Amino acid sequence: MQNINGFQKDLTSNTLKYIAIIAMFFDHFFAVFLNQESMQGILSRIPGRVVMPIMCYLIAEGFFYTSDVKKYGTRMLAFAAVSHFPYIIYFNLPDATSVIWGLSLGLIALATFKNDKLSIFLKIPIIVLLCLLAIPGDWYYIGVLWILFFGIFRGNFKAQMISFAIIGVFLHVIPKVISLGWDQLNQVAILLAIPILAMYKGRRGRKSNFMKWAFYVFYPLHLILLYLLYRLVTQ
């Protein structure tokens, strides 16, 4: 897709990764460095709400692009293991684990659903089990469901976004508000991901090993750096 000047108007998957990485960095910075009960803290988290939907969408896309789903899944699980300790140390959540765990299980859920060798009566219990296993992770089972339905409705953007919004609002936003209070209404900002994803038309962008591994390295590394920075400024 090009405009009259020859410039691309759509977003590539690489661009989506850059958006997610930048928004994630500042979201994680604000999460610890700002008082989350203040209005400043609440508003600071709004841009970061687009990160999880973008990541889930890219994982679902990756499932259809990869030539080896097992290798992709193994890489994601290894990524989750490496990210575990930086996550719990930075956020001081010893009983939890990072969002990468849920993303990994979401990929497995989509692979399970797309496996023609399995009956629907076996697929459903497996997917339910994967959702339960995802609960200790950041965003719990929401990522599993988003990845699953992004994959199921691939090629039908409207259905993808409707399922995304229903899952996000009824299983994430409303429970958050009920359990933690009205300040959690900033979670509605997940819907800001819709116009961003609408600009993605399937182009992957320039293929390179750097882009392939950048996010895997960035996630645990930025948590380590933020933790060191926090210790430095609070001493």
How would you describe this structure to a colleague?
Helix 3 (51-65) runs parallel beside helix 5 (99-113) and helix 7 runs antiparallel to helix 8. It is built from ten helices and no strands. By secondary structure, the protein is mostly helical.
Task: From the structure above, extract its key features.
about 70% helix, disordered N terminus
| Mean pLDDT over the residues | 93
Report the C-alpha radius of gyration, rounded.
Answer: 18 Å
Largest sheet: none
Query: Could you give the count of β-strands?
Result: 0
- Coarse structural class: mainly alpha
Beginning-to-end CA distance, first to last residue: 52 Å
Which sequence of SSEs, written as H and E, runs from N to C? HHHHHHHHHH
The overall number of domains is: 1
Note the overall shape. globular
* Contiguous helical run count: 10
Name the poorly predicted regions. 1-7
Strand % is under 5%
Helix content: 55-70%
Topology diagram in text:
Elements: H1 13-33, H2 39-44, H3 51-65, H4 69-91, H5 99-113, H6 120-134, H7 142-152, H8 157-180, H9 193-198, H10 209-234
Helix pairs in contact: 1-3, 1-10, 3-5, 3-7, 4-5, 4-10, 5-6, 5-7, 7-8
